[in-house]
Amino acid sequence: MYVRPRTLDEAVQALAAPGVQILAGGTDFYPAHVGRVVSAPVLDITAIDELDGIAETAGEFRIGGRTTWTQLIATPLPRCFDALKAAAREVGSIQIQNRATIAGNLCNASPAADGVPPLLALDAEVELLSTSGARRLPLARFITGNRKTERRSDEILTAIIVPRTIDGPSAFLKLGARRYLVISIAMVAAVIEKDGEGAVSQARIAVGSCSVVAQRLPALEQRLRRAPCKPGLGDLVEPGHLAALSPIDDLRASAEYRRDAARTLVARTIEQCVRA
Question: CA angle at residue 38 from 33 to 44, to 5 degrees?
């Protein structure tokens, strides 16, 4: 079965049937089916205009579930989104960015998903819709493991919600074996807000590819608060601030190298925010 609805109502009705797979940009869906027949029912959401684009209100930004990385890059947004835009430019090639959706990156739930650390640093939430209604979950609770999320089979991720809770420069850094088209060894997103006296009022730091799920660093965020927001702020990063991470050994890097690299990237992203 292949269904391409034009409204959200039609989409959630179709999802009520068992075993339906959602197709958005297809950049994860198609590679997963190379050489195999697609036997499960497919729900193609590319014709649902309600899911397209980025809307802004007084309290939040709403990124529709069909919005691509290219659309995100082209949309004028506050500087706290600079880290997310930098991550967007790291997602595969330009062709992939033109098709892949931000929501799909979250639902795929790879530990190396580029969009997750910047969105964690923005306190993002996801909106899920089914025939029983809508619900919101913090992104930190939505992704539960490698390729695992809290999305039920009858739900569609309709939007990513970013509340207006921080206003400051942001940065994203990614380490890989080469410059482009690479799965990261470690990646970090940071947002730093300062007060009228030049001290850090808020700091949000998130690390990806160093745990089964990307994580914020609350101990470091607390340490940075009230510190002078000037060059050298990254020197406050200590190994203990990254203790909650659980990097692994694999073909790309050892766990020890990942942990050391993450510490270096954290310090550098903080410095980039300070100098922005």
Answer: 95
